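protien #1 (seq + structre)
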Amino acid sequence: MDVNGNAATGERSNDGSDPVDCDTWAVLCVTDPERAVEAAYRAHSGAVWQAACPLCGPDLAADVVQEVFLRLMRAPAR
């Protein structure tokens, strides 16, 4: 399973890179937190923006995306 909760089927993340599975992501949180956040950003930033955009508009949605991943970077294991 990848960080999106999808079965490992060779699907690609938003940027076309290979998704990171949950086990790998958990290890990265401990061994390389910066890389773990990068993987989560690649996989989920588009979905976060799409969820925020109808609520607050595109400009603030970009701020929401930034805040979500800054918080994740500060505490990736949460």
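ok now protien #2
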Amino acid sequence: MKICITGGGTGGHLSVAKALIDELSFRNIKVIFIGSTKGQDKLWFENEKKLYKKYVIDAGIDENVMKEEFDVDNEHYME
């Protein structure tokens, strides 16, 4: 099973995301995080080993770019 967590920008939202990541990882559930380059998301999660994949996107991008960014064959994610 895979679960996607999104949100962030502020420490309040990110601390909730971190707690979910810890619990889901403990339950052997693969976690994907999607955050923004505009907040603290990358800083909090770029080195998080419990995440299956991590994506950071520019806030305010148009819908066509968003569709391309989340194509499962597209490898635009932090490693």
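Residues 11-26 form the longest helix (16 residues).
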